[in-house]
C-alpha cells in the first residue's frame, strides 16, 4: 500500500532532502504472512544492500524499518513528477525496453561475482535447502496442474512434468558459482519507472534520465537472466519475443561487457536465459497459490508455456 505526501523540513536538515515522498506499508488485502515476509525482505534491501550499489538506478530511501511482526514501513523519494510506468498490461515501447535492459545490466554488473554477495548479502544453498525447495516446488506444480485440469492440454501438462523432473538441473544451475550477482527477482515492466515525456507513457526514444527499479521485495543472489526472463517471457506474447528477445538479450550482454564483466560468454548468457525461461513455469503457480488474482497469473501461464516450447527448454533439463 502506497501513500503520497508532501513534507516541510526544519532549517537544520540537509537542503537536498526531497519534499515529495512515498510511504510504503503492508497491503491489508493480501495474506499477512506473505506481506510480512516481503516487507522484511525489502526493508533489508534498503537498509543493508542498497549501500553496496553506488550508481545503480534505485529510488532514494529515507527510512526503512520493521517495528513488529507484520508491521513495517519504507519511505522513498517520490519520482512521479519525472518518471512514470506503462499502462498495464501494455508492454513498454521498444526503446523503453532497451533502456530497461540497460538498467538491469547496470544492476547485475554492480556486484557481479563479488564475494560480498555470499558473505554479506546471501546464503549458499545447502543440500537440505535444495531438497526442501525441490519438494515444495514439486508439490506446488502438482496442485496447480490438478487445479487447472483439462484447461491444460496434454502437451502442456507434459511441460510441467518435464520441468518438475528437471528441478535438480534447475537448482544446480541456480546455485553454480559462475555468473552470480544481485537479482531483483520480479523485474517486470511495472516494477520499473521510465522517464516521462509528452505522451506520458514511458515510450521515449531518447530516454533522458535513468530507468529506476522499484519494489525490491524479492531480491536474491542468483543468475542474472532470471530478471531478463521475468521482463520478456512473462509479459510478452510470442510475436513480440520473436521480434525483440534475441536483440535485447544481445544488447544486455554487450552492456555487461562494457561495464567490465568478464568470463561470461554469449553462449552461457543464452543458455542461462533459456534456463530462466523454464523456471518461469513456476511463477503462475506460485502466484495462484498466494492468492494473486487470475487476471495476473493466467496470461503469464500462456506466455511461459509458449516460451518453454519456443526455446526448447526441455532439452536443457535433462541431467
Order of helices and strands: EEHEEEHHHHHEEEEHHHHH
The total of helices stands at 11
Low-confidence runs of at least 5 consecutive residues: 198-205
Q: Give the radius of gyration.
A: 20 Å
Main structural class: alpha+beta
Provide the residue-averaged pLDDT: 92
Question: What's the quick description here?
Answer:
By secondary structure, the chain is α+β, with helices and mostly antiparallel strands. It is built from eleven helices and nine strands.
General description of the model:
There is one protein chain. Residues 198-205 have low confidence and may be disordered. It is globular and about 65 Å long. The chain folds into 2 domains: 1-78, 2-Layer Sandwich (Phosphorylase Kinase, domain 1), CATH 3.30.200; 84-317, Aminoglycoside phosphotransferase (APH), C-terminal lobe (Aminoglycoside 3'-phosphotransferase, Chain: A, domain 2). Helix 4 packs across helix 10 (282-289) and helix 7 crosses helix 9 (266-279). By secondary structure, it is α+β, with helices and mostly antiparallel strands. Strands 1-2-4-3 form a 4-stranded antiparallel β-sheet, covered by helices on one side. The chain has a 3-stranded antiparallel β-sheet with strand order 5-7-8, covered by helices on one side. It has a two-stranded antiparallel sheet with strand order 6-9. Helix content is 48%, strand content 12%.
